[in-house]
Amino acid sequence: KSIWPKLMRIRSWPMLLPHYERLSNLDFECFGKSRWTHGNIRGLFENLNLTIILDFEEEKLVGFIAFSAIPPESELLKIGVQSDHRRRSVGKRLIGKMIVTLLEQGSVEKIFLEVRSDNRPAISFYETLNFRKTGLRKNYYTHPAADAVLLIREL
User: Fold this and answer.
1) CB count in 10 Å sphere of residue 131
2) Residues pairing with 76 in the sheet
3) Using one digit for the tens of pLDDT, what is the confidence trace for 96-123?
């Protein structure tokens, strides 16, 4: 039997350190050059009340979600799932745990996120989880250029 929890909630840089290398590798697999650096993550913990939830299968990190909560709003900043674990409910499980965490805090009413307009699978995924489109940010992303679709979910 594994000693690893299935889902691990991390709310500080020191809590993340033992898992940082695996998170960084998965972040790179999912987002390439757009992955977060040490400095990015430390700053998010310090300034945005960051929470990261790691999803393990045995000792293997298969997914993560990062979100901030500044009541009454939360922002889903990043979600990543290892390529061979996609379409196996890892992303849905991570979003579910994020929602439970936010509801436990009791003061968050809405979750916002942005997604590339050319990422149809992600947009469809979020819509199945009751996120709805609220707007568009023109030319938000670079390399390659794309608009950002703004989505919201009421809690």
Assistant:
1) 22
2) 67
3) 999 999 999 888 999 999 999 999 999 9
